[in-house]
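User: I'm curious whether this sequence folds into something compact or stays loose and floppy. Could you predict its structure so I can see for myself?
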Amino acid sequence: MGLEEKHSWRLSIALGLLLVIASFLSLFIGVIDMTPGELFAGNAEQFQLFLISRLPRLLAILCTGMGMSVAGLIMQQLCMNKFVSPTTGATLASARFGILLALLFLPGSTIMGRALFSFIFAVLGTWIFVWFIQRIQFKDTVMVPLVGIMFGNIIGGVTSFLAYRYEMTQALSSWEVGHFSMVLRGRYEIVYLVVPLLVISFIYANHFNIVGMGKDFSKNLGVHYNLVLFGGLTIAAVITASIVSIVGSISYIGLIVPNIVAMFKGDKIRGTLADTAMFGALFVLVCDIIARLAIHPYELPIELIIGIVGSILFVAMLMYRLKHGRKAIRFGKKREVAV
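Assistant: Here's the prediction. I'll summarize afterward.
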C-alpha cells in the first residue's frame, strides 16, 4: 500500500469516526432532556422519545447528507462541471414544483403521492436542463450553472405564481425551507429510498466516470452514453426529490461537499463517492446540532445554518482554487499533488 493510499484510508477512517461521534451526540440534543444513562436503564418515556423522534431524525439527517452530496457528485461528473448541483441544475426547483401540483390537483394526497409528483418533475426538470446545455455552443465553467440557475428561477417563478394564485403559499412554505423538526416515525421513511440509490451509484461509478469524459470516449469503450447519462441524472433527481418531499429544500450540500472532498482525494468518482457521502452526512449533522443549540430550546431552520456555513466554505474553496489551481491537498512530505 503506497503512502498516498494510506493517507486516503486515514482520511476515510477519520471521517467515519467523526460521523459516529456526531451521531451519538445528536441523539441526546433536543428540547426534552435525554441522557444515555436513563435510556440504557430502560426508562420507558425516554425510550419512546428515542424511537419516535431522535432516531428517525438522525436517520433522516444521515440520508439527507449522503443523498444530496452524492447527487451533486453525480451531476458534476456527468455534466463535466464542478458548479453543477441539484441547486444549480434546477432539480430542487422542479421537485418543489411537483409538490405544488400535487397539492393543487390532489389536495388529499398522502406523503407518497406528493413524493411521486416530486419524483416525476424533478427528473423531467433535470433532463430538460441537461438537454439544453448539450445544445449550447460555449460550455465554459460559469455558463452551465448560470443556465441552470436561470432555468430554476423560471420554474420557481411559475411555482410562486401558482401558489399565490390558488392561495397555496402557506401550504408550500413547509417545503421552501429545509428543517428536521417535523421528522417523526411514520413520516420520513421515503428518505430510505436514498440507500439503494447510493448502492446503485457506487456500482455504476466507473460508468459515470467514463461518460464524464465525453461522448466519443464513451463510445470507444462500449458505454452507452445517453443511457448512462440520463440514468445517472434520474438517480440524482430521485434522491433529491425524496429528500425535498420530506425535509424541504436544502441548498449548497450537493455543490460544496463534492468539491471539498475532491480537494483531498481527487476527481475519480469511485474513489471519492464513499467519502463524499460520509462528509455530506457529517456536514449536515454538525449544522443540525448548531441549529438546535444556537437559540435553545428553540430551533433554527437547518437551511439557514447550511447557507451560512456553506457560503463560508464555498468562498474559502474558491480562494484556494484561485491560488493553487486544480491540486489535491495531501498530508505528508508532498503537501500537494496535481490531479
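Summary: The CA atoms of residues 54 and 242 lie 20 Å apart. The two ends are 19 Å apart (CA to CA).
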